[in-house]
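Q: Hi! First time asking for a complex rather than a single chain. Here are the components, and I think there are two in total. Is that enough to go on?
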Amino acid sequence: FVLTQPPSVSVAPGTTATITCTGNILESESVHWYQQRPGQAPNLVLFEDTARPSGIPERFSGSKSANTATLSITRVEAGDEADFYCQVWHTPSDRMLFGGGTKLTVL
Amino acid sequence: QVQVVESGGGLVKPGGSLRLSCSGSGFIFRDYFMTWIRQAPGKGLEWVSFISSASGFKNHAESVKGRFSISRDNARNSVFLQMDNVRVEDTAVYYCGRVVGRRGYHRIDSWGQGIMVTVSS
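A: Yes, that's all I need. Here is the structure of the assembled complex.
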């Protein structure tokens, strides 16, 4: 089971960043997203496809359709620059699976 | 506030052993599943191990199965990762995490700061 993410996404400040996560497993499992700033531990920014933990700005949103999940960040700021990872829990094998990660660069 | 803190990392020779510890505070530790995640230098996140709240269920990634073992002591609010027969490719920052969500929706809502494990001769 593989979750595929683009290695990098670059956007200008104030625009919208879109990061995808693709895998057949997404048709049956819920996806969660983490942001990892340089030198820091990951931080949960979206869970169960579309929900935001408390403290995460409304600029962060998620969607999922068939085998593709999408994390969108509107009005991108320099402070959003980080690596982003998608994650699922594979229920039949009770294992956690991460995508390869996407480096978001704010130009 | 919720906090998890790892300890026990360091330098170990190939084939050697190391025991990582993770202490939880600010929450009822015995009510939560816990997990270990690692990140090799310059690489992505890799799930390592998972343990249920009362230790009734454990699971490990294929890459560490038979070499690593997760355990917990709820009286001490701690979870452990016993790493035996380590390999160079086990070199990574190891993160401890608190797991939330019902089965099928498990995710990590609180991460430790991470601890470095270096396997080298």
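A: Chain A has no helices and nine strands. Let me know if you'd like any chain examined more closely.
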